[in-house]
Q: What sequence folds into this?
């Protein structure tokens, strides 16, 4: 092999190895920082990984908020109307946090309990995070099918929607406010508290 060709081959091989190493290290770093979203039904089904950073969202179940008077610890349950998940949080909650309100919590699952590091709520009381709205809509559809057996109809696209669905993709009871012509967005989507 000619010395120039050998030098070029070593250079290309070195670049490929260096690029592979950089991509591999980047993916390893990202893997630890990616927060996948799980609904309470997903968590109850065992789909959420234990002791990894995830986002869990749903409605704060009525009557479930318990505050420790000696500390900032708050225990509550989040639900998607199908399953509930216990949440433990230590810190100051957002002002809009209340029972029946949609929230997204960031944290880890440990032995069936979600340990939140951060709890997020929207500035606008009418807002519900899209993931939470979708999960609640799926749970509502599932409940309607179980109760009536014929409460769903197939639309032209081959997907099913419940008879209470207004065709917009959201059940009107769980509307997120997205796409409304009179809604305003100040760019700050969540008001939350950090650890």
A:
């Amino acid at each position: 092999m000619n010395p120039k060709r050998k030098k070029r081959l070593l250079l290309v091989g070195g670049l490929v190895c260096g690029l592979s190493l950089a991509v591999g290290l980047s993916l390893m770093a990202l893997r630890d920082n990616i927060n996948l979203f799980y609904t309470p039904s997903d968590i109850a089904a065992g789909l959420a990984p234990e002791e990894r950073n995830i986002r869990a969202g749903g409605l704060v179940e009525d009557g479930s908020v318990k505050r420790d008077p000696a500390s900032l610890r708050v225990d509550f349950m989040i639900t998607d109307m199908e399953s509930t998940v216990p949440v433990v949080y230590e810190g100051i909650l957002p002002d809009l946090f209340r029972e029946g309100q949609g929230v997204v919590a960031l944290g880890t699952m440990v032995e069936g309990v979600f340990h939140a590091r951060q709890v997020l709520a929207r500035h606008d009381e009418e807002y519900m995070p899209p993931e939470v709205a979708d999960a609640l809509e799926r749970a509502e559809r599932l409940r309607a099918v179980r109760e009536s057996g014929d409460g769903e109809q197939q639309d032209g696209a081959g997907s099913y929607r419940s008879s209470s669905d207004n065709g917009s993709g959201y059940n009107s009871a769980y509307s997120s406010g997205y796409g409304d012509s009179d809604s305003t967005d100040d760019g700050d989507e969540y008001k939350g508290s950090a650890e």
Summary: The first strand starts at residue 36 and ends at 38. The longest helix spans residues 3-33.
